[in-house]
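To assess whether ligand presence alters the predicted conformation, the chain was also submitted together with nickel (II) ion. Input:
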Amino acid sequence: MLIAIPDILDAAALARVRGIVESANWIDGNATSGHQSALAKRNRQLPEGSAAAREAGEIVLGALQTNPLFVAAALPAKVFPPLFNRYREGEAFGTHVDSAVRLGPGGLRVRSDLSATLFISEDYDGGELLIEDRYGTQSVKLPAGHMILYPSSSLHRVQPVTRGERIASFFWIQSMVRDDGARRILFDLDNAARAVAAAQGHDHRTAIELTGVYHNLLRRWAEA
Ligand code: NI
């Protein structure tokens, strides 16, 4: 399931993140690559654990925690500290799959169920994120401050930037519900239950029953 989440960062948060990352020191993006993706990646990124990455990452994490759509769609158990990359003209990231387990600071271990790209800049051409799912290849390019969530199991790539500079934050989420299909059912049920509650009132018997089914399925499927 691909889910676009609008306005993760508002204008003020976006300006703060841009201010932090644009003045930071960037390194070759292959610092975090596995062998396979190192062959395909041409970009730069903020060093993992650097002061700039931590500071900007905290802003992103804070915004995620208070975003109801993100929480409902991802059912997050652990979020990898956000990383940041930038692609100049001619830079790209060829087809690859993300590593299944990411190791982070302090012994953190995150199974990548979901991958996230949060767009920080928007004044560029090219640079689309192409995600192959079972329905074909989806091309994703969102306004700054918006984020796409997609299954980490998918093959994906970033098209060459042909003008300007593409800056984004990217990270991985371990979900309480590992299976993408089960997570999708919960997301649909959550939306349906909310719609019934909005139309009929939160104390309507059917709204309460649907909410009960949601929580009973989550109880059955959640790992944490
Ligand atoms: Ni990737």
